[in-house]
Amino acid sequence: RYARDGRGGRIDPRRLSKLITPTLYLPSATEVLSELAAASDPGSVLGAYNPPHEGYRRLRAKLVELRSHLDDTPLVRIPAGPALKLGMRDERVPLVRARLGLGPSEEPVFDRSTSLALADFQKKAGLPANGVLSPQTLAALGTPARARGEQDIIAQMERWRWLPPDLGAAHIMVNVPEFRVRVMRDGGLAHEARVIVGKPETATPIFSHRMDHVIVNPSWFVPPSIMKKEFLPGLAADPDYAVKRGYVVTRGRNGSVSVRQPPGERNALGWIKFMFPNDHAVYLHDTPNRRLFASERRAFSHGCVRVDNPFLLADQILGPEWSTERLKRLIGSGERRINLPQPLAIHLVYNTHVVGADGELTTFDDLYGFHRLVRQALEQRG
């Protein structure tokens, strides 16, 4: 059980969300017992079932550090009661303000300063930051800050267990909550760039795969979700709805309709896309709307990952034969597939808590609530 838990078997990530689909590498009992029987140091054998990755080890060291310090957060016991919202009067308001480190107020009114302070607490606790004192928030207020910090790190450590033990000597890592893509090579950073990820209602999925080719001058086939919401109603009102916007409509004999946007400067995929065929039908690609990269919170897509300066990424993964200059000479000359010299592992991850080489913990917004789901699942498991 320890070995399986070390490899990510404590909870089933696919039961948390249909968009969390890592491939777990769970050992069999026979495999574990055979290794232990032959080992001179069974403890090290069991320990090796935990992730070998540096990101995991740093989190573990931070967890040890947290547990070595006494919690100095003053706990104020707040009685249960109805949810408190902005403008409401309640005798518990002074207790809430004291718990949040605010000064006393003349009236027991849940005012703007209290609501803002509570929203900040909720954000740090991984709760919806709405400034409302809900039963869930009340429970979190009754948990020492050290314990909440431990739960956050443990939940993040669990997500590292979902990755393959071997990430690949060269691999691509997209950290969705950070809006960043990195190319790692032999343990070092070779390239990084800003990315745009899916909106909360069309979230980018979390999984690992292998990238095997890129396409220059790609066509964009309108996905079923956009067809249903936008194009089919438009075509019903005006048969030339898509054509007027530069799309090509193909009608099948069975009544099916497909809509394609030809290559060009207005194409939704830009000039290049990076392919790793998968069940979610997502990939990395360019975009004609590059101004969005200036935003700090870049959750604008329908699920795919848009890459800033994509030709620099292509330069990293296609090798010296395909320089940026050579790739750009292909622009406008028709769709062209280029295979990678060898498939490259790509990991779409959800790291909301990251410990740097200096030991400092950086947190990113729980964009889709996935971190909260993991933490709650682990807490319920006990």
Helix content percent band: 25-40%
Structural class: alpha+beta
Succession of helices and strands: HHHHHHHHHEEEEEHEEEEEEHHEEEH
Question: What is the strand arrangement across the widest sheet?
Answer: 1-2-3-11-9-8-4-12
What kind of sheet is the major sheet? 8 strands, mixed, barrel
Task: Please work out how many helical segments DSSP would assign.
Answer: 13
What does this structure look like?
Strand 2 (180-185) and strand 3 form a beta hairpin. The chain starts with a helix and ends with a helix. The strands form 3 sheets. It has an 8-stranded mixed beta barrel with strand order 1-2-3-11-9-8-4-12. Strands 5-7-6 form a 3-stranded antiparallel beta sheet, with no helix packed on it. Strands 13-14 form a two-stranded antiparallel sheet. It is built from 13 helices and 14 strands. The mean pLDDT is 92. By secondary structure, the chain is an alpha+beta fold.
Features:
8-stranded mixed beta barrel; 382 residues; 13 helices; alpha+beta
Write the layout of secondary structure elements.
Elements: H1 2-6, H2 13-16, H3 29-37, H4 42-47, H5 54-67, H6 93-99, H7 112-125, H8 135-141, H9 145-160, E1 170-175, E2 180-185, E3 188-198, E4 207-216, E5 220-221, H10 224-237, E6 248-251, E7 257-261, E8 272-275, E9 284-285, E10 299-301, E11 305-307, H11 310-318, H12 324-328, E12 336-349, E13 353-355, E14 361-363, H13 370-381
Parallel strand pairs: 1-12, 3-10, 9-11
Antiparallel strand pairs: 1-2, 2-3, 3-11, 4-8, 4-12, 5-7, 6-7, 8-9, 13-14
Helix pairs in contact: 5-9, 9-13
